[in-house]
Structure formats: structure tokens, C-alpha cells
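Input:
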Amino acid sequence: MAQGTLTGDRQAFFSDIRKNIKTPPGGKAKRVENPMDGLFTKRETNVQDRRDLRERFIKEWNALGGEAHSVKNQVELARGLKQVIHERGIKKAMRWDHPELEKLNLEEAFSDAQAKLTKWPVADKGSNWKQEAASFEAGIVWADMAMAETGTVVLPHDAKQAASTCVLPLTFIAICTTAQLVDGFYDVMKTFKKRYGTQLPTTSTFISGPSRTTDIEMDLSIGVHGARYVYVFIMDEE
Amino acid sequence: MHIEPSFHKRYKKALNDKTMLKAVKLGTGRLRGNRTKAIEAVGVEKWLEFRDRAEAIRMHVVQHLDQYLEQMVDSVLKRGGHVCLAKTGEEAVQYIADLAKKKNAKNIVKSKSMVTEEIHLNPALEQQGCKVIESDLGEWIIQLAGETPSHIIVPAMHKNRFQVADLFNEVSKDKIPAEVQALCGFARAHLREQFLKIDMGITGCNFALADSGAFTLCTNEGNARIVSALSPTLVTVMGMERILPGVEELAVMLSLLARSATGQKLTVYNTLSTGVRSEDEYDGPQEFHLVIVDNGRSKLLGSKYEKVLNCIRCGACLNACPVFRNIGGHAYGWVYPGPIGAVLSPLYQGMDKYGELAYATTLCGACASTCPVKIPLHDMLYALRNDKVELEHKGELAEDIAYKGWSATFASASRYRFSVRMARRFQFPLVSAGKIAYGPPPISNWLKARDMPALPDKFFHEIWPDMKDGKE
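Output:
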């Protein structure tokens, strides 16, 4: 990737800052070592712990106005998806091109429910893909991690796992297994550091419930820009 | 929007706007209640730890701002993003306006950004023929009204649904009923069309990460997520202090920000982006520009006001402030209202224009005790009052003598007792029914608003020796 360009007088900009920064009596504040320690849950989890975390996640996600479900296997997942397709009258949905979703044969569930599921990308790059992506009624993603304490799904994006899938449609569906469940930020940020170092993905989205606003008279309204109906299906890990 | 230059006139006007005051009381009350519940859920002790940690993180960053900013700039450049270092707001505006011209950007969609309000970006872009649309619902409402935000988190807090319906009906072909769901539904449909036509997107920046060059956008509506996904050219404008070392510090700040602002555990959409998309991606900008704005911030470094740069723009101090709750945001005159605005406005815009805001406080300290990064806002307001007096009253001999005399009298017990005895003896021409309601200047100004009790026949220190011995 080509290096970007800099506009402005770098030397003058930073010399103004350096000139003014002072060392207070007692020295400058030191960098906080391990800033998350003591604030967030920090532990190794086993299968049973993660089953408990699933209950916690479901409680939090539902409290935010979404619907999270525990499903044992692929059969129960298909049943759950068909229910959503029926409830929301979905005719057309898109999904990430993700190996875990590939294994689940979601297309069959959609076809059984007389709906169509299209894998990302939904149009050619040269075409008006934005218009096309916005025409889908639902978007399905694989949650890379799910934070139980806050009811948050963590979605790193790349060419096959587009952000548009999770933010343009009115209905958002995330799927994962209990293996993706973590307590909260501690595990997510440690995983990010270990996995990416400082080379973070182009974009990652942390989603906690449906799009919401209280901008008019502090009255809660759901789905002003992003998804109004948000579902998470958590399967048993193998 | 015309801004009345006198704070006195602005707050008088606000006090007469009953609709606005009702809306602000409702809004701040709700946000305050939500925050309290969030703290109770975390546990007060843990919350205090969160604040200590956040303060330590911010202080470290601010005191090493040069290092972290340089690291950030290099990280962004390395990932193919462009960086503009803008010493002033005008430089930032010029850069973005030139870029819009170069990209032939006609449709510009923005997500909420206080710093772009601060530098007056929209009028400059509109002047050169760009259509600029605010996509945050509250920001869009005030854009249609031609107003500035009245609250950092809820910009249209002062408007009720009937006023919003009137504004939307000017844009809509069909009549929109004054019902919140219907109004939001119309906003979704209308703004979705704008998103799909976007030529250039402009966002603010909640936090930038020095080590990776990433920046975060936090929105409950998801508008910033859409802007950053669909813009071919994306401009992110950040105040230069909005920086953190890395993702671990970010976790602390995001947890504090949402709880302090709205009482949520996390904002609904937190986007962490490094800017330019890869060749095979559809989403995200082909071209990314990070505009880092100084605009008066560097002069606060090393000063007694340095800690104000810790601010994470959560708006909690506004909701806590009894003055804000009774006059709303527009009375503060500039883009930042409430206690944080009363400190930032005179520091960024000058004491001559906004020095009066140092008096828009009861000095109760609610702002400081609410602040998630422990900015001593009421101490700063007190210091600003001193600065204002120093600036305006230097060399006024009579006043200097009066204050020095007063100071000398109150510093000595015997002089104080002598002076109050004299006052008691000579107050009789002013006393009526045990009160002083009228008097000569300069106390006449004070007495216009309230009565002063007359000095009693005996002071406490005169009664106390007898009380102590059980005689009274």
C-alpha cells in the first residue's frame, strides 16, 4: 500500500506542543501498565463456563431489545432461522462469505422458507453495489466473539465479511457457538493484540443490540439507521 | 443562527423559553438517572477504580501528547491514509473544502462531530455548493432548524416532537404526524437515500489509537458505521487530544464513555477503523483523510487548565449541573455547553467573548464529581473568574484598596470583630423589619435580587462563652 501524504508544517505543529508540555513536580504521569486489570473479568473458561456465559449473553442481548437464542445444533438453528424469516416476512437476505457459515448450509433453510440467501459480494464492484446491498432485508454474519457482560458481538471485517451486511438491512442475524463466548473486553482486547498486534483489520464493529435513538423527547426509538430486529443464535460447541 | 453576544441576555431569553426548559429538565433528568443506575450496576467502588484508571490514562497521554500524536501520524501514513495537521480551525476547514472541490463531492454526509461544529465546517462547504447532511438524528433536526447543538450527546434536547414534526414537514412531501416512531421512520427513509448518494463522508473521532493508527466511532444509531462503510472518500476530524496508546486503554474508555453519557454498558455501534480499505474490499473508503486539529489546544498544555484536555465529551457534567439544567445549552453561546463549555469557550475563544461563562456555575462541584476522567471543572471555573478579574480590573485603584482592606479585615479576628460591631451600630438607616432591602451602590445591585438579613444584636461568638457555661 502506498504511503499517505502529510499536509501542514509537521515541525512547527509539534514544536508548539513540545514547547508547552511541562513536567509537573514529581514527574510526568507514567503509562498505566495493564490498564484493564481489576476492571474487567479475567479468567480461563471451560465448556461449562461458556454455557453459563451463553445465558448471561442472552439476558443482556434481550434486555437491549434483541432476541438471542440457544440452539443445540444445525437443525435447531435452521428451525430458528425459518421462524425469523416468517416473522419478519424476509424474502431476500445476504450473508458473509465465512467458512463457519458455509458449514451450516443456511441456503437450505432459506429455500425451505421461500426466501433467497445471497453470499457477499452481492453485486459486481463496478455496479451500484450499495443500492443492491441496501435492498436486502436481512444480513447474516458469524460472530468472531460475543461479550456476555455487555451483550456485544464482535465483527472484524474483510473483503468477504463486509460491514454493510450488518448495518444496512433492517434485520441483523449473528450466529456463533459457545466457543466464541467471552466474559467481556479483557478477552477481546487480549485476542486482538495477540492476533493482530498493531495491524488491526481495516474495520471491526462491536454491536450491542438494535440501532437506537432517544433524540426526540428522550423517547426510545429502535432502528433509526441500522438494524431494528437483531437476533443472535448460539449453538453448542463441539 | 444569530448568537446574542451578551451571556446575560442569552440566559434571560432561555429562562423565558418554557418549552425548552421543560425538555432540558426531562432530558438531563433521564440521563442522570440512567448514569446512576449504571454506576450502581458496576458497584461504586469499581466505578471509582474506573475513574482513577481513566484519569491516569488521559493524564499520561496529555503529558506525552507529542509522542503519541507523532506515532499516530506515522501509523496512518503507513497504512495509506493522508494526514492534515491543522494549527487552526481555518486551516482544517480549508483542507476539507479543497478536498471536496478536488473530489467534486456534491453530496457530503456527516456523522456527529463536535470539533466540526467548533471549526464551523458546514457553512464553508455549503458556500462552495456542497450539500451537507448531518446523519445523526438530533444533529439533522438542529440542522433543519438552523441551530447549534444544545447538548453534547442529545443535540436537539431542547426540541419537542411537535417542533420536530414541523421541521420534517418542510422536507417531506407527505405530512408526518408528531409521533416519535413516525418521525424516526421518516428520518430513516430520507437519510438512507442520502447515504446511498454519498460522495464524501465526514466523521468525528471518539478516540484514536497511536500504535495502530485506528480511530473509533461510537454511535447508537449506526449512522457513523454507515458513513464509514459507504464513503468513497472519508474525512475524520479529531481534536488533537483525542488519542490513546492502544486497544487496552480503549476498552477502559469505551466502558466509561457509554455509562457516563447515557447509562448504557456500551454504545450500540463501536467502529474501530484504520481507514483505507484493501483492494478487494467493497466497504470502506478508497481514500482516507485524518484532520488533526489544534485550534487552541496546545496552549493549554502545561497550564493550570491542562486537565481539561482529558475530556472525552460524554456530557455527564451538563446533566449534573444545576445551571445547565435551568438555562439549557444555547445560553452558553458557543458549541460546547454546560460546565465543560464554560471552561472551554473562554480558553478557546477568548476571555473577552466568553469570560462571563465562568459565572455560569454555582461552584457546587457536581460537574467535577461526575466527570469520568476527574477534571476539576469547578476549580477551573473559579480560576477563570480570577483570570477575568485580573484581566479586567488591573490598575483600578479604588477597587484594589477596597479588596485589600477587606482581605486585611477578614484575616484578623480582632479587626473582624471591630468591623462587624461598627457595621451593626451604623446599619440602622438601611434596616426595615429586620432586613436590608435597599442600599447604596455597590451593594444596591445585589439587593435588587435578594434581601440581606440585618446584623443581629449579638453574634454567635458573643453568645458562645455564656452558652458554653450553660448560662443561655
